[in-house]
Every structure is written in C-alpha cells, then in structure tokens.
Amino acid sequence: MRSRIKGVGRYLPNRIVTSEEAEELAGFKKLGVRKGLCKMLTGCEERRYSDTNEYSSHIAAKAAIDAMKKAGVSSDEVDALIFCSVSQDFAEPATANVVMDLLNIKNAFGFDVKNACNAFLTGIDIADSLIKTGKADIVLVVSGEALSKWINFKFESKEELIRRAPVTLSIGDGGGAFIMEREEDDNKGIVKSIFRTYAEYWNNNVVWGGGVRFPRDSDKMYIPGTTKVIIDEQRNLGKNLLPILEREVGWNFQKDVDCYIPTQVAKWINKSMSNELSFPIEKIIQVVDKFGNVGASNIPIATYEAIMDGRLKTGSKALMSGVGVGINIATIAVIL
C-alpha cells in the first residue's frame, strides 16, 4: 500500500511584476546599475505579488479549493490538513487553522510544517506516513506564500544589490496544494523519499525576525538574499542524494524519469543541474521565469504546470527535489 497524489491545485495572485518593474522598485537607476540585469541575475521574466490584505492563508485556501475540485474531494472528506510554507499569517496559532476555517473543514486535524523551501516536500512525506499508518485516509497538503511582503527593496550600494538580487528580486507569491489518499496499486504513488540536514549551515540566509531572538525588530523580517551555500547544496543534491535514490528505487535517472521538479531558485541553476546530471533540460520543470521563486510553493506550482502542459500524466515517473536554508536537501520519487 502507498499514498498517491490524487489532485493538484494552484493559485496565483493577480498582480504581475515584471523584471523592469522590480528594477524600478529596487532603485537600479539611482545606484547606476544597468537595465536588464534583474532578468539576467534571476532568470525571471515576471513574478506575482499578493495584495496588501491577501495573506498566506488566503493563498493556500484558494490553491486547496482547486486541488479538491480536481480530485473530486469535499471538505467533509479531508482527514488532515498540513500547511507548509516559508511565510505564515502570524506566530500563533498555526496558519493551518485559518486555512481549515476558510475551507470549512470539520472533524479533521491540522498543523503547520516549517522547513524553509523544503516545507512542502516535508509535508508530502508526513502525509505519506499518516496514510500508511492508517491515521488518515485523505490528507490536504497546502502552501501559501506571500513572500513579497518580506522583500527589502532598499539597497545601500551597487555591490549589495548585485549580491542580494538573485534571491531577493526572484521572489514571487503563490500557492499550491496536493490531495493525497491511500493507494493499493504499487505502480502508483510515493515510491521513496530521502531527506538530509546539514545543520552547520543553519546561519546562512536567516530571516532573523519573528522569533524570540529579535521579538520586536521589524527590520529583521526581511529576506537577506545570499545564495552561495544554497547553490552549492543544490549541486550536492545531484551528486549525493539522487544516486542513493536511484539505487534504492531501482530507477535510472536519465532513462526512467519523465520529469524532474526542482527548487526554483534561479533558471541558470536548473541549467547547471541539467549539465551535471546529463539530464535533458526539457524534462526539468521550470517555472521561475514565469512566477519567480515561490518558496515552498515551487514544487506544487511546477507540478501543476507539468500536468497542464502534458509532461506529467498518469503513470509518469517524477523526482521532486529541493534545497532549503538550514541547510536541508530532499528528494521524493513518485509515480503519478
């Protein structure tokens, strides 16, 4: 018995911000930075920003409604809801509670998962365990990112802008959701997951605010935007984790996998991964150019896109892989 993904949903805020607009917000002209560099550094044509009163819970709930509709599942049938995002509505209670209320989900349990950009992959793994142990039959895994509210567009120098821009200006908002359920057919569902944490890098790219270390410092709530460790560990994911997965699952990465769905930090990183793994770039699902880096929502949004354009269909084999600050790396093998 396995768990499987029955429905995939997505929600994108209405506001589209082009790279040209992002350059204006960041003061490229004032700092003497040439036009077009934002797109070059991030690989983003555009990204979505949420409205002032549009929060993580709203974004997650709208994605969840889409997933439930596609799966043919009602609110009454959901046994558990896992909210998995970098951003959240507030410190307490769990944002999952707000999402459940918005969806009118009763007689179920819900909780939040925090694991940076790997939160959604972690949520999938927990949902898989809940289903396999009989604690839930249908689990709704949701993400709602409103990360644009954490962007600091004040750059003191040209050097700071170029250093921070690849992460800071690639950020976008959006939500994704999976409906997961019990599956008796071993030719479908979650096949294997592997997670690793390299805790010695915990202080890289920290959002210092929101905790007890800096309880009242609003300037600590911004995303710093340093990338080197994240890039290095994305390479390590390909070198270290994927061979383990290949061996344990019995798949040949180049021959058997139909789609590779990675973290969407920057387009050039995905291209670099393609070269290092000798994996066709057309099989790597990229959405960073259209939606930016949407944090934990990257995985479900990219999965949604792959289903919509026909690259993922029933029976397709896919790898979902991510790198999150902390540093955490993860990969999940799945048959749709």
TrEMBL record:
Domain Beta-ketoacyl-[acyl-carrier-protein] synthase III C-terminal: 255-333
Domain of life: Bacteria
GO biological process, one term: fatty acid biosynthetic process
GO molecular function: 3-oxoacyl-[acyl-carrier-protein] synthase activity
Every Beta-ketoacyl-[acyl-carrier-protein] synthase III N-terminal domain range: 111-197
Record's signal peptide: none
InterPro entries according to UniProt: ACP_syn_III_C (IPR013747), ACP_syn_III_N (IPR013751), Thiolase-like (IPR016039)
A Pfam family of this chain: ACP_syn_III_C
Keywords tagged on the record: Acyltransferase, Transferase
PANTHER family, A to Z: 3-OXOACYL-[ACYL-CARRIER-PROTEIN] SYNTHASE 3, BETA-KETOACYL-[ACYL-CARRIER-PROTEIN] SYNTHASE III
Name recorded for this polypeptide: Putative 3-oxoacyl-(Acyl-carrier-protein) synthase III
